[in-house]
């Protein structure tokens, strides 16, 4: 199959690489020239510096005969004559805090494509293709997509919804061995094209291949993310809070009891200061927005969203109330800038909110460390006299710090106690991920005070 990808972000780049690995001829277009150059560089380090996703560089380099990256639209136009499908992998962020999705990236890309699609096959438009919405879009988007293409005079096409369920940090692994593929289409012809694209998974006994209509596919994506977001909030706001409220209850022991109950399952039972990332927040907000716009009650959905915000504020408030932290003029080290481990994605990362809050509290200095996300973070908070980026976790402790905040679950942070125990002035530890729980006793014995999600104040 000849497949075009519009948008080379986490979703577009990973999905395109796996398509090439499945034997398809793939062209990836993005307006971001720098990203396109890095992804097409055939250089592992350059690819990973641009998009840190385990296995992505290897799979792109291995399939270099079949995958091409471009920001030249002329190449895209010549692809139109014979292509089988276009995957739309554009961002659909929330507009402010309204819940409404910003579809301008999607529409810009679609309008540009529509104006050129009418010229394919010397204006005869004989080649049939499908447009596949991989972006997370409103439930009724397929109708809108069709309307726009038709308004330009584009004919001979279908519109399909194929929501993406990738987990950042495991995107390649997950795309090579997906649990399920969901295809929403309106005709057997379109289902057939999708089956050929995903032949490798359609034929696999271990993959659920689910065929539904386009609205069901789009709604399924939003609802799946809401169910997961809700589960995280049950862990943070109910399970973790209970463990914080009664001395002598260890979060990890409660997790064992809950997660071994097959009716509950083990996903999501890690207490954390915040559920960030590009999807949970915006998708649950979008679900709420869409239901409100048809007059429905969304109290429960909105409360799940609020519980997440509450979690981060509560942790920082606990530091003030329980450990009597006064932030003014203090030196604070933050470990972890990515929204979670194994990615350099900082969208909705807790560290973004923490840094802003600390600046508002007039701290003296903020030292930041992350193994992968520093470049992205610097785009939001450039280095200044007050904001300092450390080259390693060890260097973050140079000249001492007053307060340490752990905000990402990078596995290496489990070893931070080694550096903490070397400090002459003992910083207050705020563990937003319970990364040091195996060392709490030892740290306290050595005079450290710890505020951790899922534990009462430890001193
Ligand atoms: N990241 C995830 O974990 C994830 C998971 C499932 C679904 N999704 C959904 O997939 C979609 C894409 O997410 P992402 O994380 O890949 O976003 P991203 O921001 O990483 O990538 C989007 C890319 O689109 C490019 N772009 C913007 N306008 C363009 C245009 N007019 N033409 C061509 N390229 C353009 C940007 O330069 C960027 O590289 C979103 O709707 C998101 O909700 C994301």
Task: Write up this protein.
By secondary structure, the chain is of the alpha/beta class. The chain folds into 2 domains: 2-212, Rossmann fold, CATH 3.40.50.720; 228-452, 3-Layer(aba) Sandwich (Rossmann fold), CATH 3.40.50.720. The chain contains 18 helices and 14 strands. It has helices at 10-21, 33-39, 44-50, 56-62, 73-80, 104-117, 141-151, 171-176, 188-197, 199-202, 214-245, 251-259, 280-292, 299-322, 350-360, 374-380, 416-420, 440-445, and strands at 2-6, 25-29, 67-70, 85-88, 129-133, 157-161, 180-184, 208-212, 331-335, 365-369, 387-389, 403-406, 428-431, 450-452. The strands form 3 sheets. Strands 3-2-1-4-5-6 form a 6-stranded parallel sheet, with helices on both faces. A 6-stranded parallel sheet has the order 11-10-9-12-13-14. α18 (440-445) links the parallel β13 and β14 (450-452). α6 (104-117) packs parallel to α7 (141-151) and α11 (214-245) packs across α13. The longest helix is centred in the middle third of the chain and has 32 residues, at 214-245. It is elongated, with a radius of gyration of 24 Å. It starts with a strand and ends in a 7-residue tail after the last strand. The model has no long low-confidence stretch (mean pLDDT 97). Residues 6-12, 29-32, 35, 89-92, 105, 108-109, 135-136, 164, 166, 168, 278-279 line the site of nicotinamide-adenine-dinucleotide.
């Amino acid at each position: 199959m000849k497949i075009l990808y519009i948008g080379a972000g986490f979703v577009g780049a990973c999905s395109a690489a796996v398509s090439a690995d499945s034997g398809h001829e793939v062209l990836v277009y993005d307006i971001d020239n720098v990203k396109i150059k890095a992804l097409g560089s055939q250089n592992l380090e350059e690819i990973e510096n641009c998009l840190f996703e385990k296995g992505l560089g290897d799979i792109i380099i291995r399939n270099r005969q079949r995958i091409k990256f471009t920001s030249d639209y002329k190449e895209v136009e010549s692809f139109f004559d014979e292509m089988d499908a276009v995957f739309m992998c554009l961002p659909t962020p929330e507009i402010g805090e309204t819940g409404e999705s910003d579809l301008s990236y999607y529409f810009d890309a679609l309008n540009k494509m529509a104006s050129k699609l009418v010229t394919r096959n010397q204006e005869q438009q004989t080649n049939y293709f499908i447009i596949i919405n991989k972006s997370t879009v409103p439930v009724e988007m397929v109708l809108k997509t069709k309307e726009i293409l038709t308004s330009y005079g584009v004919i001979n096409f279908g519109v399909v919804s194929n929501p993406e369920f990738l987990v950042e940090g495991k995107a390649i692994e997950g795309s090579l061995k997906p649990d399920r593929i969901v295809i929403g289409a309106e005709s057997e012809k379109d289902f057939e094209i999708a089956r050929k694209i995903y032949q490798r998974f359609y034929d696999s006994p271990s993959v659920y291949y689910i065929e539904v209509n386009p609205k069901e596919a789009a709604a399924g994506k939003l609802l799946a993310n809401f169910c997961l977001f809700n589960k995280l909030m049950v862990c943070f706001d109910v399970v973790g809070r209970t463990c914080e409220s009664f001395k002598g209850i260890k979060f990890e022991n409660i997790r064992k009891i809950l997660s071994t109950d097959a009716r509950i399952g083990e996903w999501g039972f890690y207490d954390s200061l915040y559920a960030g990332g590009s999807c949970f927040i915006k998708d649950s907000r979008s679900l709420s927005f869409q239901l409100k716009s048809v007059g429905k009650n969304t109290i429960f959905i909105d409360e799940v969203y609020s519980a997440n915000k509450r979690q981060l504020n509560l942790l920082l408030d606990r530091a003030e109330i329980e450990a009597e932290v006064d932030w003014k003029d203090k030196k604070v080290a933050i470990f972890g800038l990515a929204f979670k481990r194994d990615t350099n994605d900082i969208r909705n990362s807790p560290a973004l909110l923490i840094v802003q809050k600390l600046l508002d509290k007039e701290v003296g200095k903020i030292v930041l460390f992350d193994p992968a996300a520093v470049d992205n973070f610097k785009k939001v908070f450039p280095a200044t006299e007050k904001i300092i980026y450390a080259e390693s976790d060890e260097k973050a402790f140079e000249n001492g710090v007053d307060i340490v905040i752990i905000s990402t679950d990078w596995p290496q942070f489990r070893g931070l106690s080694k550096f903490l125990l070397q400090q002459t002035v003992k910083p207050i530890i705020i563990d937003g991920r319970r990364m040091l729980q195996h060392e709490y006793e030892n740290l306290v014995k050595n005079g450290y005070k710890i505020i951790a999600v899922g534990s009462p104040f430890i001193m």
